[in-house]
Amino acid sequence: MSSKKISIKYLIPLIVISLILLISNMGQSFRDDTFLNDRAVEHANNLQAIWDKSKNQSQYYDLSSKYIIEYIANIGLKPYYPEGYSRDLITYMPNFKYPSILSVIDKHGKEIKKYNYGEDFFEFFKGNNNCGVVKGHADIIEKLPDKNILLNEIVLFDDYYNKTDEEIKKTDAFLKYNGAAAVITPSHTLDLKNESGLYDQINNSSENPLIKFIVTRRVYTELTEFSKKGYTLKVQSGADIELSNSKILAGKIDGKNTSYKPLVILTYYDGIYRNPYIKKEEYINYALPPSIILECMKSIDLQRNNQPDRTIIFVFLPGQMLNMVPDFKNTINIPGDCLLFNMLGSSNEVILSYTNSSKFTAESVEAFASKNNIEIVSKSTDSINPYNIIQIEAINSMSNNQINNKYLNNSGKFILSLIGDECYDLDFVTANFRSIRKIKRYVKYHSASISLIAFGIMLFAIFNDHDSKLIDKKK
Hints:
alpha/beta; Aminopeptidase; Glucose Oxidase, domain 1; 3 domains; nine-stranded mixed beta sheet; five-stranded mixed beta sheet; elongated
C-alpha cells in the first residue's frame, strides 16, 4: 500500500469525524445561560408583597394565582386546561381568627416552654372542635373511663387513634360532660396535618365543642411530664376549619412532535400556611421556587423561535391544600414525566426521590444537577408510587432569609439545562432511547476535546506519512 493511500485512509475519516463533532456542538441552539437573577428576585418580592397584604390563606391563593396567570399569559404560554390557565380545587382549610398557642407556665406565671405551631402541634379537627383559650392544670387519661369522673379543663388524652367519627364524637361528649374544655392528643404518625382530620372533609358537629390539639409524640411526653410536676398549660386555638377555594395553575409550550410524552415541571406557589406565626421575611424562602420557574419560563420565551420537540407543561400547585403531597390521580391528572421542585433556590444541596419507572429521567436530573454545582445529598426510590414523578427538594440553608444569588442562579441553570436536554434537539432515536441521548450528551459536552484528539491523530498520520516518504527516498 502506498503512503498516499495511507494518508487518505487516516485523513478522510478523521476529517469527517471532526466535522460531525463540530457541527454537533454548534447545532445545540437551546441556551441555558439566559436565566436572570434580577427577574427571579422581582417575582419573589412581588409574591412576598402579596403574602404580606393577604389576610388569610384563601386571599393569598386568590391574589397570587392572578399574578402567576397574568404573567404566564403575557409571555405567551398557552392554557393547559380547556377552560383556561387554572382549575378550581376546593377543600377544608384552617381560618385563623387569632394565633394558636401551646405553652407551659411555671408556678410564678413565667412561660418556660412554647411550642411551634405546625411542627409541634396542630388543631385536631376530628369530632367536635372549637376555638378558644384555656389555662390550667391537665389531667392525664390513657383510656376513657367506664364511669363519669370530675376532670380538669385540660386533658391529655391518648385514645382517639383508629376511632371512627362517631366514636370520636361520643368521646368528646363524655369529656365535655365531665368538665373538659380542651383536649391534647398525641400523633401516631409523622404527619400532624394529615392525622388532624384537616383533609378528611368531614362535617364537624357544633355539639359539645372542645379545643383540640394534636401534638407530636415527643411533645406529648414532655407535656405529660410537666403536668405530673404541677406545671400549668396554656391552650389557645384560633383556627377554625372551613371550605376554601384555590386553583391549580398550568400553562404549556407545545412541542413539534405530539407523540413524545410531555415534560411536566411542577412547584408549589404557597409552600406554607398564611398564619399569624410566619414572619413576613421568612416567606421569601417559599417564594423562590415559583419565582425560579417563572424566570425559566421567561428564559424559554426569549428563545421562542426555537420550538421544543417535546411539549413542556408548567404547573403551580397550592401545596397546603394538598398537604404538600401531589395527588396526581385525583387532582392534577396531567400525563408526562413529572418533575416536582420544592424549596429550590435556598441551597445547593438537594434530596432526590423517584419511582422505579422514572429511573432514567432521574439519571438525567443527577447529571444536570452535577453540571450546575448542585449536590444530591440523598436519594430514595419509591417502588409503590405508580406515577412517573421525581421530587427534587432543596435543603434550606439561607442565612437570615437573605437570597443567595449563587444558589438562585445554579437552580435556574439546572432547570433550564435539564429542559434543554429533555425537550430540544430530539429525534426519534434520542427521544425514545435515553442511552443514545446520554451518548449524544457526552459528545456534546466533550466535542471540543474529542475534536482536538481527532485532529492530533490526523497530524500524527500526516507526519507519519511524511516520515515514511523520507525513508522511502533514502532507500
